[in-house]
Inverse folding.
């Protein structure tokens, strides 16, 4: 059966460490930029304009209703053909675009749900006291909504850590890609157990922090 799991880990731990750092980096970029874009989509979804709400709804439903891997392939193969100016960019860019867009759709629903969770009566009371819509949102609604948004946002980061495993399909150096590297050394099953253990440890630690 070849060397043991412990032997492989001790010998090739720098490869696994580099893969883990890549996974955490891609997940952080995806959720970070996805949060900014998701906040914008959430604002559009909560607007009084039916057109803006419809656009935001279509955006969210399409990205949440299609597999991330398909979105990655579309970004990887279609974007360079549709926008020739992007041909000079690295393959990492296209994969990150797919991750960011996918994350933004989920984050937008997290933010929208957090804002909607605040009792509508508080908004009405604030407006009746003469507060503007902007002040009402920043002083009354958001401070309460953030308590519901942050834990869910942490869970989205945890989920994205696992989703980035698909980036290895495009030869990006992340945790799952280490299996491809070690396969050249005729190590087939050992890296899979090590990778699974690292993912499990990351999710347990981050879940505890959340």
């Amino acid at each position: 059966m070849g060397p043991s799991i412990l032997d492989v880990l001790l010998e090739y731990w720098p490869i696994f460490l580099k893969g883990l750092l890549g996974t955490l980096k891609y997940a952080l970029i995806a959720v970070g930029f996805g949060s900014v874009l998701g906040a914008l989509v959430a604002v559009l979804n909560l607007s009084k304009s039916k057109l803006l709400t419809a656009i935001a709804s279509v955006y969210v439903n399409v990205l949440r209703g299609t597999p991330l891997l398909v979105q990655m392939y579309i970004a990887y193969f279609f974007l360079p053909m549709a926008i020739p100016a992007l041909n000079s960019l690295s393959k990492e860019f296209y994969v990150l675009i797919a991750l960011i867009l996918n994350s933004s759709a989920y984050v937008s629903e997290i933010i929208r749900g957090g804002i909607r969770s605040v009792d509508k009566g508080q908004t009405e009371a604030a407006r009746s006291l003469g507060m503007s819509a902007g002040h009402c949102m920043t002083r009354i609604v958001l401070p309460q909504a953030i308590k519901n948004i942050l834990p869910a946002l942490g869970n989205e980061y945890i989920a994205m850590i696992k989703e980035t495993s698909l980036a290895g399909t495009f030869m990006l150096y992340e945790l799952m890609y280490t299996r491809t590297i070690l396969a050249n050394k005729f190590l087939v099953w050992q890296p899979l157990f090590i990778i699974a253990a690292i993912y499990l440890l990351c999710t347990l630690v981050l879940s505890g922090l959340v």
Q: What stands out?
A: The longest helix spans residues 5-46.
